[in-house]
Amino acid sequence: MDSSGLQNPSEAERHARVTEALARGEELRQAKEYDQSIDVLVEALQYGVEKAKIYFRLGNTYFDAGRLDHAEYAYRRAIDCDPAYVNAHHNLSVALRKQGKLSESVKLYRQAQRLAMKHPDRVQLNPEQTEHAKRIARRWLIAAGISLGIIVLGLILLSR
To answer: What is the C-alpha to C-alpha distance for residues 47 and 81, in angstroms, rounded to an integer?
Structure first.
């Protein structure tokens, strides 16, 4: 029996509950209610699904709460569950850097970069990172358009 009183929830029910817990945990983290967020996420681990994602969110919550040793542990568990979890590798490197473990931090940062190149579909951006990426893409498109215009103009002038 689980905490909601239901016996043996189906796979779909377990995923739905974990999805709800992840959303609730994130709301609490954003509200700086770290202990409550941790409780919600730890309880979600009982469902045995999406453990890497749950541990990753736990790591983020511990990191925001300043509990870097716990964040390190949670990110390592996320990586144990999913060795190709790009964001967990990256965030672990940040947590290690903040703890002064620079050589391991650099190693994991490079590993995160390699994984991101190998699995670009696995990289998760938060809304700020997405906006930043869009701004950079727009600049590149504008620069490419200007460059193309200059090339076309040059070809027109050369053809005369």
So the answer is: 14
Residue 5 maps to a domain: no
Give 140's Cβ-side CA count (13 Å radius): 6
Same domain flag for 101 and 156? no
As given in the structure block, the two tokens for residue 66 are 């300043």
The predicted pLDDT at position 159 comes to 77
Per-residue model confidence as pLDDT tens digits over 134-154: 677 677 778 777 877 788 777
State the burial class of residue 18 (Cβ atoms within 10 Å of its Cβ: 0-12, 13-18, 19+): buried
Verify that 104 and 147 share a domain, yes or no: no
Residues 112 and 33 in one domain: yes
What's this model's pTM, rounded to 2 decimal places? 0.72
- Residue 155 domain-assigned (yes or no): yes
Distances (CA, A) of 159 to 118, 123, 155: 44, 47, 6
